[in-house]
Amino acid sequence: MSTDRETLTRELMELVAQEGMVDVSEITPQKRLDELDIQSADFVMILMSIEEKWGAYISVDNELSDVETVQDLLNLAITKIEEQQAA
After folding, report:
1. Phi and psi of 17, rounded to 5°?
2. Does domain 5-86 have CATH number 3.40.50.720?
3. 3-state secondary structure (DSSP) of residue 68
4. Interhelix angle for 40-54 vs 5-20, to 10°?
5. Which of 30, 65, 79, 81 could form a disulfide with 56 if both were Cys (CB 3.0 to 4.6 A apart)?
6. What's the predicted TM-score (pTM) here?
């Protein structure tokens, strides 16, 4: 089940909004995650949802350390999803 990046980006932004309990209109790629007030527990839910929906595992400890913006998160998630789909 291959998905183009545009669709994937939109779906991921909607997922972040839903799991982070943020209005989707506030989520832009350059927005810093701390500005969206997404808590660590919300992050765990976001990552679990990504794994559940696309089968892509993202480690909270190692891989999220450099994630500061929505775009950082999208890039990481899309890379993981594409790796999963290629496997």
Report:
1. -60, -45
2. no
3. coil
4. 140
5. 81
6. 0.85
